[in-house]
């Protein structure tokens, strides 16, 4: 009896589906490995969960997308686009799974800080947001990113700043922010 | 009440629970967003932990993909488009450009020869132009490494010496050393702490001045944790 060949069968064994060039298949395999590594890199404590199954799932999806297209003029550029989409999907899937695990574990809600502390915290947040809005656009971006924990190199990549420009904008943005907060009676 | 539009002026609406949709990420990664859209999206990334993770993963994807895939667009995610002078387009613009070029040729023919621009004096750092020296190209360590032992880079023909600078994740220089070689050993005083480091090499040139490599990063995967030197109490006073 003749056995039907499906894309999933081929992908599960990392074999290229019929009609897909070896070059495209090889690129897809490389991207699948790279996506797994990129996702693990940003997953912190959850990195250990990003296993072979993620790589296989991504590879199957990439094979499916490549096989579904009749005429791909620039295969590598097309695979890159598909890889970007798959990366977003994998991370959003991991995020949903993480929320599900937390719900299943019935973790107790974080301790209530108490109304006075909550109010003070909210007021401080609002004052910081207002103070940030008084900064010039680039200094505001640099200060917000710095407060959010972004590294200098990341800001350079985000905004096309040189190293020195990024460092200067952070320093000046944070100095402006302190001044603006002091003017609002916030010090420390 | 309707949710405020996350990207005013953008052709998509906030989707997926207020996060940018896949299409927006794809266009960001391919350098296809307008400056306004790009900034709006990145402003959201800074405020959103989930999208920060996606952005960081896509940066890692782009950097990794550039090593084997020539199809990765330029400019991409980690290399934003710089404003370029407006270029002529063919059609009417092309005709105007041709007319302007013809006028320039006529003008050059009747004008006296202009003096040559002054040459760059010795001792200056050459950063651009045809005389700009090659910059050091860093070879290792790059990417993820277990315990880097040696820094290596390509030689710069005009260099008489080099200076290696190692920076921590906050961009503070934690170690620097001069050398006449194109390699330097990892400092014995600095443990291989897990985390991200940056490094660059500054080449001191024979004719004076210097030229620096791009700042590259690497991740140390394992080892005893690095502790920055404590500020002495005398310094704090």
Supply the CATH class of the domain at 138-220 in chain B.
Answer: Mainly Beta
Tell me the strand percentage band of chain A. under 5%
What general outline of chain B do the C-alpha atoms trace? globular
Largest sheet of chain A: none
Low-confidence stretches of chain B: 1-14, 83-130
Give the C-alpha Rg of chain A.
24 Å
The helix fraction of chain B, in percent, is 25-40%
CATH architecture of the domain at 138-220 in chain B: Sandwich
Integer-rounded radius of gyration of chain B? 25 Å
Number of domains of chain A: 2
Written as H for each helix and E for each strand, in order along the chain, the element string of chain A is: HHHHHHHH
Subunit organisation of the chains: heterodimer
Distance between the termini of chain A: 79 Å
Low-confidence stretches of chain A: 1-12
Question: How would you sum up this structure, described in words?
Answer:
The complex is a heterodimer of chains A (188) and B (237). Helices cover 71% and strands 0% of the residues of chain A. Chain A is an all-alpha fold. In chain A, helix 3 (52-68) crosses helix 4 (75-104). The model of chain A is unreliable at 1-12 (pLDDT under 50). Among the domains of chain B are: 1-81, no CATH class; 138-220, Immunoglobulin-like (Sandwich), CATH 2.60.40. In chain B, the strands form two sheets. In chain B, strands 2, 4, 5, 7, 8 and 9 form a six-stranded mixed β-sheet that branches. Chain B is globular, with a radius of gyration of 25 Å. Classes of the chains: A mainly alpha (188), B alpha+beta (237). The interface between A and B is large, with 44 and 43 residues.
């Amino acid at each position: 009896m003749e056995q039907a060949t499906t894309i999933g069968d081929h992908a599960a064994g990392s074999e290229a589906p019929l009609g897909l060039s070896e070059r495209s298949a090889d690129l897809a395999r490389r991207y699948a490995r790279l996506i797994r590594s990129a996702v693990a890199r940003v997953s912190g404590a959850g990195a250990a969960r990003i296993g072979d199954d993620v790589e296989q799932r991504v590879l199957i999806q990439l094979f499916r997308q490549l096989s579904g297209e009749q005429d791909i003029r620039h295969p590598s550029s097309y695979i890159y686009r598909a890889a970007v989409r798959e990366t977003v999907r994998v991370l959003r899937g991991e995020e949903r799974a993480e929320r599900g695990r937390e719900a299943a574990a019935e973790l107790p809600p974080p301790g209530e800080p108490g109304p006075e502390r909550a109010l003070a915290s909210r007021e401080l947040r609002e004052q910081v947001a207002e103070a940030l809005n008084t900064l010039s656009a680039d200094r505001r971006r640099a200060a917000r990113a710095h407060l959010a924990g972004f590294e200098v190199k990341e800001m350079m990549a985000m905004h096309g700043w040189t190293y020195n420009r990024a460092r200067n904008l952070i320093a000046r943005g944070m100095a402006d922010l302190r001044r603006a907060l002091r003017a609002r009676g916030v010090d420390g | 009440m309707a949710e405020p539009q996350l990207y005013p002026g953008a052709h998509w609406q906030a989707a997926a629970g207020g996060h940018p949709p896949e299409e927006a990420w794809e266009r960001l990664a391919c350098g296809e967003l307008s400056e306004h859209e790009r900034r709006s999206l990145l402003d959201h990334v800074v405020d959103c932990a989930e999208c920060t993770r996606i952005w960081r993963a896509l940066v890692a994807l782009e950097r990794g993909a550039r090593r084997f895939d020539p199809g990765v667009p330029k400019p991409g995610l980690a290399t934003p488009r710089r404003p370029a002078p407006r270029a002529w387009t063919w059609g009417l613009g092309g005709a105007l450009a041709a007319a302007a070029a013809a006028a320039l040729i006529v003008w050059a023919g009747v004008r006296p020869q202009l003096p040559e621009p002054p040459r760059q004096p010795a001792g200056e750092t050459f950063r651009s132009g045809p005389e700009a020296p090659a910059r050091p190209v860093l070879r290792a360590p790059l990417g993820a490494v277990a315990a880097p032992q040696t820094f290596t880079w390509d030689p710069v023909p005009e260099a008489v010496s080099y200076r290696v600078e190692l920076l921590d994740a906050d961009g503070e220089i934690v170690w620097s050393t001069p050398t006449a070689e194109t390699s330097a050993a990892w400092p014995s005083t600095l443990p291989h702490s897990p985390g991200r480091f940056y490094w660059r090499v500054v080449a001191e040139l024979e004719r004076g001045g210097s030229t620096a490599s791009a700042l590259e990063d690497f991740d140390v995967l394992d080892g005893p944790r690095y502790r920055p030197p404590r500020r002495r109490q005398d310094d704090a006073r």
